[in-house]
Amino acid sequence: MLKGKVALVTGASRGIGAAIALELAARGADIAAVCRSGREAAEGVCAQCRERYGVRAEVFLCDVADGEAVKETVARVRAAFGTVHILVNNAGITRDGLIARMKEADFTDVLNTNLLGAFHMIRHCSGLFLRNREGCIINIASAAGLMGNAGQSNYAASKAGLIGLTKSVARELAPRGIRCNAVAPGFIRTDMTRDQENAPLLAGIPLGSMGEPEDVARAAAYLAEADYVTGAVLRVDGGLAM
Ligand code: NAI
Q1: Quick check: is 107 in a domain?
Q2: Ligand 1 centroid, distance to 134 Cα (angstroms)
């Protein structure tokens, strides 16, 4: 149970982030739902958290790629909720393209949101974790970060980087009682993968189907409660990256 814990979830307005917010709320955590836009959708997620599970839940608009904005947002979450116990770095984007034609901005935009965004959040939450002598960081990586993916060199680089970040932070903060793990989803049915479901794609997945956001949310909730697990990369991919 996560009763009495405060979870900050980025990209919580929809898809996997929304499912994670609801799953952590179902286990009793209060929810700080961070997103760059889509306030209305995020308000809907928070209303469901409150009404279904009786927890506190509030929306905080923030672009995670902006370090100053992250600093301010963590301060606002602290003012509203007192602290943060669980940080879920889920916000992510894609700008797919073949490497020879990829614009530099497509590479840096993806790195800035997916990797630098997680760095900013970890950095600004770690003071709270150190003070609490506990903390749990969950980074949403990707099977692409383990296997690579043609047309996604920017995205795969960001997710492989996130896995290196996860393991380094896990080693660095373990002596202070702070855990850091990653989830590596495969193909999950969300806005990000809309229209991607096709026979060749499904043929590459041993379990033969795409996953649902709730599959990833249950893995994140497991890691939130698994006191003896740190530095792990938990694949939720139907066997894709085996
Ligand atoms: P989505 O596109 O449905 O939702 C992304 C969320 O991130 C939205 O709430 C959006 O507002 C937020 N966001 C984007 N940029 C942001 C920024 N700069 N600052 C703050 N919030 C920002 O995506 P989906 O599918 O739910 O993906 C969530 C995470 O899971 C991403 O990190 C993605 O890379 C990862 N993932 C998704 C897979 C899939 O098949 N859908 C597979 C593997 C990983």
Answers
A1: yes
A2: 26
CB-ligand 1 contact for 10 (6 Å cutoff): yes
The pLDDT tens digits of the residues spanning 116-155 come to 999 999 999 999 999 999 999 999 999 999 999 999 999 9
Atom 8, ligand 1: which residue's CA is nearest? 11
Q: What is the predicted pLDDT for the residue at 78?
A: 98
- List the structure tokens of 153: 């060199």
Q: pTM (2 decimals)? A: 0.99
Structural domain span for residue 184: 6-236
Instruction: State the distance from the centre of ligand 1 to the C-alpha of 159, rounded, in angstroms.
Output: 12
| Domain of residue 49, CATH code | 3.40.50.720
Confidence label for 216 from pLDDT (cuts 50, 70 and 90):
very high
Single out the residue of 147, 136, 162 nearest to residue 221, CA to CA.
136
Count of CB atoms situated within 10 Å of the CB of 105: 10
Residue 241, in any domain of the structure? no
